[in-house]
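Appendix C: a fully annotated inverse folding record. The material below is reproduced so that readers can follow the format used throughout the book. The structure is listed first as tokens, followed by the designed sequence.
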């Protein structure tokens, strides 16, 4: 069942389980939807295929009577353009950021790019901690569902919740001017809540992917702006510190820029060269090699890991959207499945200190038929 199929099925469920008189939907409509779906998909179609086809057919009939239906579906449909727009905004912000510091002197110990790398490292540590905590909470469960649930960070969950809340009807929108209840609005409100719960994992994965792409775009924009400024301005690199000497500076640079130095072949300065770069005693040295080192370091710490995380979330998103994990075990879907298969629900009633009258048994049968389907075997 795809994401669209699951969304249609939940909307039809909210419609068909509404209290009598709330919506324009009759027993004849229910029977028609089931019969038409069985004719299209065949009597032996899997339950999810039958439910999906029936929901599509029911949506077409309901939409002909209720104009709000398509608008309600569009309100909770994911907008693919959000990701590219967010990435474009992040890139522009990155370009506007002075990624190597104010002025034309670069302190190799404290450029803004170092803060960007540290922030991303903190994000990775939080993600790992959350993943480990999720495995512990699940008793070591390493199934796909457990891994997906552990990946949704607080920012992704917050944005997903905000997106769903924005799609909900305003308070009081389910009331008519005369004080009565607008049945359609109340049904759509229930559908919104059901869909928010069912799609939380998928939308959290989507928003996590968007945040990864935004981080990539911001870092790429910062690097682009840095190189563009370097074309028109001469930057000088050096360092100054109240507490650190040249030896401590060299050890720090080995940790921060060592991998980039190894990849690019750009050697890091020894202690004597560092002393010759100290501000304000000297004017430093040409900053081009340092800019290259920091650019490669940002690629290693931000661009590459974030790209891999975005790719992982994109693959998970595609799989969830194509094979949506909608449970068909509740009473409504179970009744549809039994009806399609020609199976009757078996219900045994055991009275305690009471002998129900024939009229009470008939009323009970009618109530159970509304929930479990017309094919019902009731024994008292």
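Designed amino acids, in order:
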């Amino acid at each position: 069942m795809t994401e669209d199929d699951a969304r249609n099925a939940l909307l039809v469920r909210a419609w068909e389980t509404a209290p009598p008189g709330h919506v324009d939907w009759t027993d004849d409509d229910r029977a028609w939807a089931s019969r038409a779906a069985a004719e299209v998909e065949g009597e032996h179609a899997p339950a999810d295929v039958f439910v999906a086809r029936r929901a599509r057919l029911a949506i077409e009939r309901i939409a002909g009577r209720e104009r709000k239906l398509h608008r309600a579906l569009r309100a909770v449909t994911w907008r693919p353009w959000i990701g590219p727009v967010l990435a474009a905004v992040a890139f522009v912000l990155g370009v506007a950021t002075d990624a190597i510091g104010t002025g034309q002197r670069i302190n190799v110990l404290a450029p803004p790019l170092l803060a960007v790398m540290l922030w991303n490292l903190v994000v990775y540590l939080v993600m790992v901690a959350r993943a480990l905590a999720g495995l512990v909470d699940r008793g070591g469960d390493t199934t796909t569902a457990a891994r997906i649930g552990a990946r949704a960070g607080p920012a992704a969950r917050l944005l997903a919740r905000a997106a769903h809340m924005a799609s909900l009807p305003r308070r009081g929108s389910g009331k008519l001017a005369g004080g009565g209840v607008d049945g359609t609005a109340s049904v759509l409100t229930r559908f919104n809540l059901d869909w928010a719960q069912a799609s939380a994992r998928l939308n959290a994965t989507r928003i996590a992917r968007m945040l990864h792409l935004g981080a990539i775009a911001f870092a790429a924009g910062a690097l682009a702006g840095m190189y563009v400024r370097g074309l028109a301005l001469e930057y000088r690199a050096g360092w100054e510190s109240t507490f650190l000497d040249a030896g401590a500076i060299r050890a720090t640079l080995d940790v921060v820029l060592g991998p980039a130095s190894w990849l690019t072949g750009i050697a890091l300065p020894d202690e004597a060269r560092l002393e010759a770069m100290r501000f304000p005693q000297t004017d430093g040295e040409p900053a081009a090699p340092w800019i290259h080192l920091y650019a490669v370091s940002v690629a290693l710490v931000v661009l590459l890991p974030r790209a891999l995380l975005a790719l992982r979330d994109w693959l998970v998103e595609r799989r969830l959207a194509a094979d949506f994990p909608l449970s068909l075990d509740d009473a409504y879907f179970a009744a549809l499945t039994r009806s399609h298969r020609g199976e009757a629900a078996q219900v045994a009633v055991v009275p305690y200190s009471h002998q129900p009258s024939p009229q009470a048994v008939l009323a009970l049968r009618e109530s159970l038929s509304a929930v479990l389907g017309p094919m019902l075997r009731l024994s008292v």
